[in-house]
Amino acid sequence: MQLKIIQPIHVLYFETETTLNDIFQYVRLVARRLYRDAVQHDMEITGPVYWIYEGADGNPDTVFKLTIALPVSPAAPASSSEFEQKLLEPYKCISHELQGDWNGLGNVYGEIFAKIGEGNHAPSGQNREIYINMDFQNPAGNTTEVQVGIF
């Protein structure tokens, strides 16, 4: 686990309000559309897919803002693009990498929040999951960085 300050990141993104109960409708589908749109508009992809949760509290029925973002080099907006671009603000977080099945995400969040509780930090209400490697055939091959925003 480590404390990080993430510099601003320019992204192509999708945003919606959802709950943890309803989030699975976006898995795999939105990322594919983001990649397709970026390639179609000749954008340079500069990183893996980010899932950004604002206001998620672990309760499956809580409505929160979900942003699914693909880092790209800044480009002129394409009028035919399904998505918009923006700059993610600098982000201070506690980060931990999960190797393997996403069923372990709950434990990672628990460890990070315990670490935050030990220190002089408070959660910001924004969490990020960076999907460094997604292996849908062999979940043991997944690499996911979990970032919990702090003040």
TrEMBL record:
A Pfam family = GyrI-like
Please state every residue range assigned to the domain named GyrI-like small molecule binding. Answer: 6-148
Positions of transmembrane segments: none
Q: Which InterPro entries match?
A: GyrI-like (IPR029442), Reg_factor_effector_dom_sf (IPR011256)
Highest rank taxon of the organism: Bacteria
Q: What is this protein called?
A: GyrI-like small molecule binding domain-containing protein
Output the Gene3D superfamilies linked to this UniProt entry: Regulatory factor, effector binding domain (3.20.80.10)
